[in-house]
Amino acid sequence: xxxxxxxxxxxxxxxxxxxxxxxxxxxxxxxxxxxxxxxxxxxxxxxxxxxxxxxxxxxxxxxxxxxxxxxxxxxxxxxxxxxxxxxxxxxxxxxxxxxxxxxxxxxxxxxxxxxxxxxxxxxx
Length: 124
Fold this sequence. Notes:
Blueprint: E1 5-7, E2 10-11, E3 18-23, E4 32-39, E5 46-51, E6 58-60, E7 68-73, E8 78-83, E9 92-100, E10 113-114, E11 118-121
């Protein structure tokens, strides 16, 4: 059974940095495309970044480009999201998600497995 557990959320000042982690025990992590998504109050969930296991190709939402970096450690079955230059509009619940295989590893694909999320708050 695929289980995903996010951590690293919290409150951070505007302009600050935060690193989120998603541990994925119990399945062959390297077989999965992984992604970070977020949902702000009153808004739809949106993609932030994805990363393909094979060649570590990453895709980013425009809002994340240049500020966020997605990475993964297949040996530790862990996904990361390094966030720099945080803004109040980055306030959201951040979710990691998994999609089996490498085809269509992008923000617009369907992800079957989801974590419960971790809250990131950037006060104004």
